[in-house]
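re: ur question from the group chat, yeah i did fold both. here u go
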Amino acid sequence: MSDLRVAFVGSAAPAAQKGLEKLISRYGSVAPNRADVIVALGGDGFVLETLHRYMSSGKPVYGMNRGTVGFLMNEYREAGLLKRLANAQRVTLYPLHMKATQSSGRVRIAHAINEVSILRQTRQAANIRISIDGVVRIKKLVCDGVIVATPAGSTAYNLSAHGPIVPMGADVLALTPISAFRPRRWRGALLPSSSHIRLDISDVSKRPVSAVADHAEVRNVGRVDIREDRDRYFSLLYDPEHNFEERILNEQFTP
């Protein structure tokens, strides 16, 4: 356990920087490329940034909450950290692969751990055709946008848009409309994680739309292709008493 090589990183928030200084003073720190585990201090947004930054390294990330919500984080405590890391449970996440084709024809690629969001850019509602595995399921959805969420992201923006919470390991994705106007009664769908989701945007010049993969935004898109990327994965570590699957389950019973 004493041989565990730890890299500490932190957000710019004062609380995160103060915790970073204390932990490095107590445990030391190595460069992330030499670490066995990366400890990220901040909020949910920062742990997502950390996962994206070290996507290709395969190194697990252990988040400690020095932010606001902290749903993806463990409790911040300075004492006994090496023992906590040794006993932590690993959760493996597969990101979404987003291929966004802009109205100019330029293609942009990005990955999302939480969700891919298709959002109107102006006061005009978006017109979106939805195809799943080559079959058109909705010819014209008039809405503020659409969310495709992973299980990890189903409790974030997806839940705020009244989408379903998806248990970890369910091998499904949530497809959720944002303020659907037509068809008004459509509330979304649960799709197999192997699905290829294609979203075609109509009236691009009059009704411009953005595609956002976590924090990466592509504006003026005409088509967005989304699928789960099984060639990449992220690993998060959690204290056994703060099991991630249990947190997602508890969210379904929170008043």
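okk and heres the other one u asked abt
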Amino acid sequence: MTMHPYIAEFIGTAILLLLGAGVNANVSLKKTYASQGSPWVLITSAWGFAVFVAVFITAQSSGAHLNPAITLGLTLAGKFSWSLLPAYFLSQVLGAMFGSWLAYLTYIDHYRQTQDEATVRGTFCTGPAIKNTKNNLFSEGIGTFMLVFAALCIVGPNIEINGSEVQNFGLGALDALPIGIVVWVIGIALGGTTGYAINPARDFGPRLMYQMLPRKNKNANWSYSWIPIVGPLVGGSIAGLIFTLLAL
């Protein structure tokens, strides 16, 4: 995508300060996840590298969306077929459920030794460091906007699915590292408020899996669960629409 140089400079500087100042705030301000003594760099690094691995493996087959917000953003930008949207959403949620279940089985003895249900739930899904519906929704939206807008600037390969018309469906294997870095920096810079789901499937699927576990006193916090669904979908939609406008 090419833009007018003045617009490009404005957007580039805004992104630089959003993420750069965001890092300062996440590390320095009270009650963010990064300031509470948690291994935040380890967590964000692992998620970034996890995205890298997942994108690298699946890119040539599906475009490696892995996220309903990215699928929706690509669709609104005219880079994905509306007819494939429901099946992609379902596949992403089911995959998130299965992956979180495998992680649970890997650490099942340790889950049995952990009595704090908030800690257990936190290994499956996200929650706000400070509960504030409006601000939590904005945090998820702005983080996902950055992810989807960056993904739209990276997308490249042509993929044929079930004999349908060849289209620009998503990310290629060579784009795995850049998108992993994007997720990494979003977590470090903007993730300290809500744990940065920035992916409805990543939060809803594991939350549902947690609800299904045979544990006493479990609390999936469903009253919050709509925020990491609606926020990312809105942020991804806005990213797709703005990308389309700038590309005109």
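fwiw on the second one: The chain has one domain: 5-247. The two ends are 9 Å apart (CA to CA). idk if thats what u expected
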